[in-house]
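name: query_chain
kind: protein
chains: 1
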Amino acid sequence: MRRLLLALPFALLPLAVAHAAVEHDHAHDEEHGSLSAHEHGVGRLNAALDGQTLELELESPAMNLVGFEHAASTDADKAKVAAVRAQLEKPLVLFNLPKAAGCVVATQELESPLFGDKPDADDDHDETDKDDHEHHPDHSEIHAHYQFSCSAPGALKTLDLANIFNTFPATQKIQVQLISPSGQQGVEVTAKAAALKF
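structure:
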């Protein structure tokens, strides 16, 4: 399953190239004082269903979830970060997985500079990602990776992201890449159209 999720970026390379162009524009706009290219309100979700294993990987600018991207220094900011982390630690509620699917959380990982994560010397990829965040402290992201074991995966007919939009109202759209037994799809969901078919 891990290989399937790791293969997703290669299958979606054309989208990555387009995104890189946007990131370049963003860096260029920053130099000239424009904030138009920063994608506040936009999250990304990679989802893969393989047999009884469902993996979900959510990436979002911290602004969408906590309302800021700087290090939490005040008690109010620290409380907001703790509250968001607690919400992200309940993925069955957040992703509204149908009870009939019998999904249980097998593993979950939450990462963000706002959570006090430090680069791990044993993981070069994460260290590079975190270095990027340290060089761009105004662009903190939150990454959540979940793996579920589902006893009746056939009951997973749709992935309903309405609770994410309700829980984090600053999130306006989520770019979803989904691999399932019925194939691969890329779709953009909003609060008004928050569900997609597996």
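note: The first strand starts at residue 42 and ends at 50.
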